Structure formats: C-alpha cells, structure tokens
Amino acid sequence: MFTGIDEVDWTSLRHAYGSAADVPGLLRRLASPDAAEREAALDGLYGSVHHRGNVYDSTLACVPFLCALAARPEVRDRGAIVELLVSIGSESAGSRARAAVRARAEVFVPLADDPCPGVRRAAADALVRFLDEPARVLEVLGRRIRSEGDEQVLRALAEALGLFVVRHPAQAAGALDLLAAQSEPPYAPGTRLAALGQLALRAPQRLPADPVPTAVRLLRERTEHRSSDTDRAETDTLVGRIRRLRPSDEEGSSLLRTLHRALDDRVTDRIDLLVGQLSSPGAMDRCNAVRMSAELFRAWRADFTAPVSLIGAQLRCVEDQLRDAAVSVLAELFGLATPAADELHTLVTVRPDLWVRTWERGRPSLGGPLKALARSGDPRAVPALAQLLAGPVVPAGLGFEVVHLGRAAAPLAPALRHRLGRVPLDAPDAAERAAPMLAAVTALADTAAVPEVLRLLRGAPDGLGAREALVGQAVGALDALGSAARAAVPVLRGLLSTRHAAGAAGALWVAEGDADAVLPVLMRELALGRGRGVRTAAEQLGRLGPVARDALPALRALAASGRVWERTGAAWALWRIGGDPEPVQPVFRTAWSENPYTRRTIAGCLAAMGPAGAPLHDLVTGELATARRHTARPGGYGSHDIARDERLLAHCRTALTSF
C-alpha cells in the first residue's frame, strides 16, 4: 500500500497549511484498525491536501497511495477513500487532478463488486467519472444492478446511470433502459424513486404518465419500510459531527430534491408533489418537504395556498426540528404566509418562550413564530410585540417587522417612540439600534416622534461614526413625517452643505415648502454627480413638480447618460415636473430589461402616471404573465425577494387598472 511513500519528498510539497510533511502519517492512519483514528486521518486529508476542494502538489502525490488503499480488502472505510478520490478528481478541481485519478481508474472496476456496500456505492460513481470505456462501464453497472441486493447501492447505481447519460450521450439508450427497469417493480420504493428522478432529469419522455402521484405513492411506501441507518460508528471528528448534523433522512431529501429539480418550471406538478410530501404520515418526509419548499417559493409565482396551509399545520408538531423548519419557511413568505396565520397565532399564544431568540453572543432577536406572524401583516401580532417593547430588552430588528403590520401597529407608536428616545447616542451601535425604531415610526407616520428623531440629529457625537450613520436615517424619517417636522427646519437647513444635502432638502421641502431654499441645493447636487446623491437629488426634484422647471435640461442629460438607477430617477422627475411622457418611456423600457431590480420602482411610477403610462403596458402584462420571480437566482436564495416580487406584482396590477 505504501511502497515508495518514503521516497516522496513530502517536505518540499505543500498543502493548505504549508509543508506536507504530515501527509504520510495521515495516509498510514487511513489503514488503522481504529475507527476514530481512520476518521481523524480522513479529516486531516480533507482539511489539508483537499482543503475546500482545492488541489495542491501534495494532493496529486496522494492519489497513488489512496488508490492502493482503496484496492486492499483489509482496509476499512474504503468507501470514504473512494469518495475522497472522486472529490479530488472532480471537474472543479482542475485537469491535472482529473488526469491523476483517471490514470488509475482501473482500480474502481473490481470495487464495483466489493463485499462492502459502501465501497460498491462509491465505486459506481467513480467508474462513470473516470473510466474512459463507456461500453465497459455500462456492462459493469448493468451486471451490478441485476445482482445487487442492497437498496442504497441500487440507488447509487441509478444516480451513476443518470451521470452516464450526461457524459456519454451516444450510449445513453442502454443506460435509460436500465433506469426505466429500475423505476418499476420488483425494485424497492426508494430505488424506484431514485430511478424516476434520474429519468425526469435526463429523459422526461421516458417518465410514466402520472409521475407525481407515482412519486408520492412510492415516497409513502418507502417511509413505511425504511429502517434507520445504524452501521455508522459515532466518532468525535469533523466528519462524524457533519454526519450527525445531516437530516436523519438525507437520502429521502436527495431523492425528492432531484425530482423537484427535474420538474423545474412545472410549478403545478411541483406544488402537487409538495402537497403529497406534506401529507405524508412520516414526520421526516414532511420536514424534507418543508425545507425544499423554500426554493420553490423564492423562485416561482403561483397559488401556494395549499402547501402553505400544510406547512402551517406542521406548527402543531411536537418535534422541534419539523416545527422550526416550518417557522423558518413561513417567516420568508411575508404576506404569502396568510393561509398559515391561524396556526402561527396559536403557536405565538401558547409558546411565549418562542417570542425571543437568544444567542451566545449579541443581542436577542425576534423569535421566528412572532416574526412570521408580523410579516404576514396579521394584527394579532401586536399584543405580543407590545409586551416585548415594554420589557427590559427589545429584540434586535423588532421595529423592522412592525413595518409589515401597517396601520394595525398604531397602538405600538408610544412604546416605539419611548424606545427611540432611549437609544444611547454615544454607543458605537447607536445607528444599528435606532434604525428599526426609525423604520417603524416612519411607517406609522407617527408625527409625535419628531422630538425623538431630532434628538438623534442633534445629540449624536462626532467622531464615533454613529452620527454619520444616524443622520441619513433620521432625515428620511423626518421626510416621511411631512409638515409635522417643521420643528426640524433649522437642523435640516444646517445639513444643506453636507453629504446629506439632497435628503435634507427633500425633508425641508415637505416640512415648509420653500422652493427658493431647496431648488438651488438640489441643482447643485445634481451637477456634482456624487454617487447616490445624484439619484436622490433627481428624485427630490421630481417631488417639487413644476417649480423645478429650471432642472429639466440637467435631468434630460442624466436620463440619457447616467447609471440605470440615475436614469430611472431622472426620467420619473421629468414626468413629475414637465408632464411629458415621451422622454420617460424609452428610459423606463431600457431600464426594465437592463436591471430587473428597477421594475418595482418603474411599475409604481407607471401606476401613478395613469393613461400616460399605457404605451408601456406590454412590460406590465408581460411581467404578470411570467411565472418566474423577477429577481430569482440559482439556488433560490433571498427571502426578502419574495416580498419585493409580490409588491412588483401588486404595482403591475394597479398600473394595468390605471391604464
């Protein structure tokens, strides 16, 4: 196994932490009879020669010895060694690493028939990836399928066949025939699900006529017969801890996730599949469904009432893992969580201990159930929020969630003002503490909060960074409070020569309506062309309306040449000042396609323009007819994008009506 290992100059080779002098010891310990020692050695190799998937010269030097270890029957945990070789030789690792593993791919052929199921599982994947003889690979996989009795190996073989179809399309027919056979009796439900998922990904035309009901039925049959995985030794190593952190039915999750990925834009089918999963008698099936529902909600538009209601039903579950997963997803849905609002309210009522989430470090934050209820806009969140505001410590971010309650949160205004007035202005995190409360009083248009906002502007000391951060937030709040902020006029005038000039000028305009004081400042900021200040100045000029006619030439130039957000702001200002839609329409049309994040703003502008915006109706109708969310990204990340997308759709519907 280790012939020649001492002839390698390991000290001259490198890994993630420097010299690779420790690598021979790690390789030798992979052959240890002690399970903990073997797993610790595997930890060490993943953490050094293959750190974060990287490949070093020491990684390439390890490949012959790893292959030799994998070939020796007396070595335990050889499946894990083959998995390491697969990772080293993956496409992302680079051509040298792939070539090093492919040069020794013959070692994987006998491993496909190894007595150890774990080795057979890993070898199936390795054969397809590295043995450059497609006919031989397919023959080995087919023979193994016909004689294999281990369900986990059969599922690995189905995945290997799916990979084979991608890598060898000219020989794909034979692999698809094997997959079609695996998707039928007498194979076990889990194997059939795996084959069904691969067929859906690689050859949808080979699917049965009713793939979703079939998948749901197989899922339930699998749950009834599934036995827990008890063949792993528990070890206190990184690999062992990662295994314990995985879902107890990671395999089931993978099977259904593959099917969801294959269905892709068939949203109705995916909703039906989710409903079937969420109705399963198996708690882990339901937990897997809850977790994979988030990606669907983030990426697609549809009527999600049925799955959301069923996710809400999981809040009754006594299992923390399932309940917490459901809460996490519902908190991302904002208004779409309404079908689960009753269940959320019940949980908030019976479990006040979940109102606040504490952390080992940092301030406590608002607990998931109460956050989800508030974000759904349900006024039943108000009493619990009031109790927290009256307590000794307000959870971080509470004010931001109040915003989603709208006018229903009006009873919280006095407590919010009180908390805003107690923000320690000399604290380094003063701006962070004030921001949620400022957002809340702004959303509530609480005119009585002007003194507390002024305190932030006047009292924050210079030199700590807090003042600069606080000023912009406070000015925005005063702007929203309108003429009630007249007491702030002297302070706002004092800001007209700072970097907050454009925002302060806008707040000054709504407070006293003095165009002579505001217009020159905004014209100056527009001419200076400094970052976000240009966009803010354009937007504020639009609010002045016809009295800002002197700014029209500069705004036309900005609309023709600025960055996309500046062009959009300038075009909107042109309409509000001059009332001519002609220069506005081409800017909006270009920005709409150039940057999807501008669409919500543009749709709001079109709704306000009424019939003058009708020439752009195709943008609105096209958006409303599109099933994919406008900012959907690979992987389905970005929970707030759901709320933004729903607001875009609301603006589009309003615009269509106004046309």
DSSP strand count = 4
Portion of residues in beta strands equals under 5%
Helix fraction bin: 55-70%
Mean pLDDT over the residues: 92
- Widest sheet, order of strands: 1-2
Q: What is the CA-based Rg, rounded? A: 31 Å
Global shape: elongated
Low-confidence stretches: 227-234, 241-248
Query: How widely separated are the two ends?
Result: 77 Å
Structural class determined from secondary elements? mainly alpha
Please count the helical segments: 36
Report the major sheet. Answer: 2 strands, antiparallel
Characterization of the model:
Strand 3 and strand 4 form a beta hairpin. The strands form two sheets. Strands 1-2 form a two-stranded antiparallel ribbon. Strands 3-4 form a two-stranded antiparallel ribbon. With 659 residues, it is mainly alpha-helical. The protein is built from 36 helices and four strands.
List keywords for this structure.
mainly alpha, two-stranded antiparallel sheet, single chain, 36 helices, two-stranded antiparallel ribbon
Structural topology:
Elements (H helix, E strand, L loop, with lengths): L13 E2 L2 E2 L3 H7 L5 H13 L9 H15 L6 H11 L6 H8 L5 H4 L5 H14 L3 H14 L3 H17 L4 H11 L6 H14 L8 H15 L12 H8 L4 H14 L3 H12 L4 H17 L5 H9 L6 H14 L7 H10 L5 E2 L7 E2 L1 H8 L6 H9 L7 H5 L10 H9 L8 H14 L6 H10 L6 H16 L7 H6 L6 H12 L2 H14 L3 H13 L7 H10 L2 H15 L5 H11 L4 H11 L7 H8 L15 H19 L1
Antiparallel strand pairs: 1-2, 3-4
Helix pairs in contact: 1-2, 3-4, 3-5, 4-7, 7-9, 8-9, 9-10, 9-11, 10-11, 11-12, 11-14, 12-15, 14-16, 15-16, 15-17, 16-18, 18-20, 19-20, 23-24, 23-25, 24-26, 25-26, 26-28, 28-29, 28-30, 29-30, 30-32, 31-32, 32-33, 34-36, 35-36
